[in-house]
Amino acid sequence: MKRMRRNEILNHDTRISVYFVLMSIFLLSTSTSLLQSQPASREPEPVVNKIDAKDELVRLNEIISQCERTIALYPQSDFTPTTMFQLSKLSLRREKLLFEFKLDKFLAVLERFDKGILKEEPQEPKIDFTKSIQLCEDILNNFKDIDFREDVLYWYGLCLFENSQRKEAADVFKTILQEFPRTEYENEINFRIGEYFFDAQDYGKAIQTYSKTIQTWNNPFFAMALYKLAWSYYKIENYSQSISTFFYLLGDLDMIDSLNCAEIGRSNVDLREESIDYIAICFSEYGELPLARKFLSDTKCGASYKTQILHSLADVYRKRSYYDKALAIYHELLKDFPFYSEAPEIQKSVFECYNQQQNEVQALKARENLVRRFGLKSAWAAKNPGKEQRDKVTEYIKSIDFILATPVINKADEMLSAGKLEPAIKIYRDFVRNFSRDERAPRALFNASECLYELKQYHKAARHYNLFVKKYAPHELTEDAAYNRIICYDQLMRLETEKKPDTLIFSFARKKYPVITESRAQKELLTACNEFLIIVPKGEKTVEILLKSAEQLAKLEQYPPCENLLHAAVSAITRRNLGHQFYTQAASLIAQVSYKQNKFKEAEKWYALVAASAGDSVNLTENSLKMMASSRYKIAENLMAKGDSAKAALEFERVALRYGKSEIGERSTFEAAVQHEKSGNVQRAAKLFELFARRYPESEHVEQSMLRAARIRESLGNWKDAAQNYMKIYNRNPGSEMAPTVLFSAGMCYENCGYWNMVALIFSKYHTNYPNDPTKVIEAMFKEGQAYYAQKNYADAVRVLNRMLYAHQSLKEKNVAVDDYYAAQAKFTMGEIDFQKFKMIKLNPPFEANMQRKQVVFNEMLQNYTATTKYEIADWTTASFFKIASAFETFAQDIMESPSPEGATKEQVKAYRATIWEKLAKPLKVKALDYYQANDRLATQISMTNEWIQKSRQRISELSGELTDNTQLSSSKQTANITEVSSQN
After folding, report:
1. Is this structure's pTM higher than 0.85?
2. Among 206, 218, 548, 706, which is least packed by CB within 10 angstroms?
3. Could you tell me what percentage of the chain is helix, strand and coil, using 3-state DSSP and rounding each to the nearest 5?
């Protein structure tokens, strides 16, 4: 009876387990379309949504685990083979999901390898079929009478096939055909067996097997089998069968569009082109053109396929260097199909054949036919109006011209290299005439011009350079050609013996100037310069040509256009920072022109610029330099008097730059700084004030200069520079009236940039050497202590802060008015130091000793924070309340985190933790809450808020939730006197 009951329970549990497994498999397959929504031979689509994939992987793992547990519990049950079969499919699904993740990681690592970050190339991941295959083998070996053996064998074969075990897969597929002659998988199995034979290069058996697949035309593997059958015939050189089969495949466009190209790694377009290519190759091996014509005629092939196949056949002949055969087909196609979309390409191929045969006459004729028959105005262009088609024709012509032109240009370059200039010129000219569209034509014309120049045929060279500019601008050589043309006329002007006046109109800056020249060559030179400036207004040589033009106009006393050219040159020189050589030349010419026009003030200015830029290279006397210096200073003074501080500053700075060592240089430097400061250019002002102090250390204005520099630096937040300037003033005379002020300012600046060593040193020096201002002394002592605190030098910080508090208290006892702010902050800082010490003490064994040490420091800390509140400075009072509360919380936390008694059981530890919470930690937390709430009330009373108030309010909310429901707030008496912390705390 008991045994029967046990079996009933077992059967009941079995049914539940099996039900769970099968329902899980059903739900997963429904949500993911695991196998049903696509042919079994196809892999699932790539996972796009990685979040969904991860969720699916989690579900798969759960179901797979349940399946494995079920199989382990019931290895011989009736449902076990079914579960194992589903597990095989689920395992493969999981492997494919894992492959997606591994592939992402692989690609990321591969990218790092490609960038050279990693030295070792990563191993590409693969899908692991091992488990799915093993499960199928276990089913087939252990459960021979299952009614779904056919499905298991099919799935087993597919897994082997995808795992590159194609021989083993073929054996399994053959077993299916033997055991299940009417199997629904027959067509696919035959196709895959055929794939095995094809890969093994056993094309005879492949043909036999593929032929079985195509016995029924409406199966999904028909088209693929037909394609591989044609290829197999080709492999065994049975070209007639291959042609027929490929053509049959090609003829049915609907069939080829339905082809499962993913299986064979081709697109539909690739298959069409490949089929056409193979048909052409077969014809080249079997029957050639006559058979191709007859076949295409007998099959009544459409014009499209006929042209494509013949075109491909001709290409095969051309690639094999059978140019006559290729030409015969090309000419036939051009005659029979003049508007074929690829006709221009065929014509180009005709050229290539003749060119390979070195038949220059026919090659040139083929090129002319390409232009005539397929150019923009041709009948073919009208039938094929697309831009892509037009661009192809243009590109073909360009390509042919390049082929024809290359030997010509190479020959010309060889002549040039050999110094045979006359023959080189002729060939270059012919090249430009015959291949004007070739991208090398401009350089050919330029090289011809260069040859003429080398032969000193300057007139011809100039004309050739001019032709280059007119014909090819803009070009990378345009500026060189225009410049070389000027050089040619410059040479001609030097060689000219007969002077004959001539006229021209010189144009510049939208103005026209009539100019009478001294000779024909000078006219040509100025004309070439004028045209250069129009064509190349901002070139590398533009400044040089501006100066060249101005020089010639100056000689002709044409001053207005000359001055315009020179000012444009100076502007370009300054903008492009071209250096002193050009600047000196331009300034010298302006000075000369100004002098000749009696503009002495202007001339003086430009001569000064020449002297400043050229130095000793300019032949000017010391007396003229002094006069120019004085005049420049007066100009600056006049600008200053007009209130134009910015311009005055620049003028003063220029004088100072030129005459720095003189008395006028000293005055100019200081005034330049002052005027820069007035104009708002304070950065420059500070630099000049500092420069003044370095350059003129004995000047009576040196301290004022450094002080102004320091204040500017301070206003800009350049704290270190400001501090250094203040210290320079102090170090010059520590006993001066301004010494205390600048020393204190230096300390403040060093504080702002965090130079704590200097802060401590300076403020120590201040309160030691200048004790007369009590307020400043107290502040200086505090800042010294704070500097030590910032460096975590707590001993010196406490020492100095205690001295400061003592001094503060002494002054108050003497009724000296001193602010309590720094005293409150000092006490708070001492509390902070104690807080750091407090946190450092851990409640480790021995617990009692460490607890006592921690309590002592805690009391000292509370005393300092509490003392802070007595100064009644709101900021520091609220800060202290918050810190006291934080200290109570920290104390409670440390207690709760202290080690449990050694050897205690879990129950004892739990009781111990509850006790220390209730007796020690919880009261501290309540105390902390009292202080936070006191801070909140204080803020309400005095209507203020700051970071301490905000933090306190946040902790009130958080801490209230931590305490248990029976936690009661402190009594009203306790909270009312919260500001007085008893010595027992």
Report:
1. no
2. 218
3. 75, 0, 25
